[in-house]
Every structure is written in C-alpha cells, then in structure tokens.
Structure prediction request, 283 residues.
Amino acid sequence: MTTRREPTARQMRLAVELRRLRDAAGLTAREAATLLGVSNVQISQIEAGLTGVSEQRLRRLASHYACTDEGFIDALVGMATDRTRGWWEEYRGLLPTSFLDLSELDHHASFRRDVAILFVPGPLQTEDYARAIFSNRVPELPHDALELRVRHRMARRVIIEGPSPIPYEVVIHEAALRIRVSDRAASGAQLTRLLELSEADHITVRVVPFDLDGFARGGSTMTYVDGPVPKLDTVVRDVPQGSVFIHSEAQLGAFRTRFRRVEAVSLEPERSRDFIHKLAKEL
Prediction:
C-alpha cells in the first residue's frame, strides 16, 4: 500500500481512533503488529495516517483490542474503505489543505451545529459577505486567490442546499448580524438570505440578542459536526493559523454542553426570524 505524503483530516482521525483503541487495550505497537502478523513499522504508519488499512485488518485489530462496539467498528470500516473523491478535490493544490478538510468533514456529516458571535457562519453567507470576509485578510490576497476562496465557500453550501441536505442548527449573536463586513446593501442581502434559509424544515436559526443578561459565552464560537456515531463527532474552531479539529470524548462532551447552554438562552426560531426581519428593515 502506497505511503501518503499528506493525510487528510479524515484519514488522520481514523489513525487516531485506532491508536486510542490500542492504547485502551494496553498493547504496544510491536505487540499489535505481532498479533496482526505484520511489522511494527506498518502499525506505526497506519497510526500516523501514512497508509490505509483494509476492512479485514481493521476488524482483526478491533478484535485484538477487545472492542465490542459494533456500530463504532462499522463506522471506522466506512472511513477506512471510503474512496469518495468529492467536489472539493478540484481545489487540491489551489487552496490550503484545511479548506479541503472542512469540505470533506461537511460531506460526511449527519448533523451540524454552529455558534457564531462575530460573523455569519460560512454555509449561510452570501457571495458578497464571503468576499468581504476574505478581502480583510492580512496580507491581502491576490484577486484570483480571493475569488477561488469565495467560489469554494459558495460550493460548501451544498450541505444545506444540495439534493441531500443535512439538519443544521445555528445560534447567531446579534453582534454578527449587525457588524457590517461590507456595506449596507450587502448586510441587507445577508439578513434576507438568513430569513429565507430559516424557513427550510432542516434549518433552525436562533438569535442571542444584545440585551440578554449574564451572557458570558462570547468565546463559545464553534462548529459541532455529528459523525456516524457520537464517538466520531468533531468540533471545529478557528485559530489564526487556520482550523483546529477537536475530537477527544471529554472535550466533545464539554462542547455539547456549551452548545445546549447557548441554545437555551437564545430566542425561539419564530422570534429569531422576527428579530432578523426587524434588523433588515432598519438598514
């Protein structure tokens, strides 16, 4: 099996999960290799995401690791045997790898939840809004590179507007609705798009108003993506260098709690639509 030069985030996630299973079983890489009848180098490469693993070998490893969670094992097999070459592959070598990893994560998601404090989340953005966001990058992007990012972001909307949209819940702070990343016209168009999308059965939009007392969760911005099983959920957080993927069980539990708390203090969907409509009329 060929060695990968740059594993994707999904391939690395599979590798991490296999390493976790081995650690939980109390086995060394050399011991796991002996049980599987391969070299310890092969185990190390699999656990580094540098090579893949067949369904047969994965199931044998799971058996040696005494993993009895069939749903989880089947989900890992799905990750190991998936050969999808999604729409994002046309951007490989043109955009940073993190852009492609986010697209692949979206593609395999079963549910997505966002908390947005300062900006409208990517899947909900209009083209002008997205262009204004990318135009603010330092150092400034060349025109072609900027337009490539905008085109990619518009393509990512397939998760909520494509033929098989996933359920999507978003909690947006009033700050994100009021900040004008561009001009008045672009802000108005962005609010109108939010109103239109909020009418879809699979999309739930909630708003946290400025006048909410005791809201101390300004750092709660997150994207929570449900995998095929809860153990394979992922949280994405933006950092200056790009995006960070978080998937330890303890942290996933903490982010689920944070989302529920932010959701609990937000306006109900109908009141949120009225709120956004009022803001749009004020422009």
Notes: The longest helix spans residues 9-25.
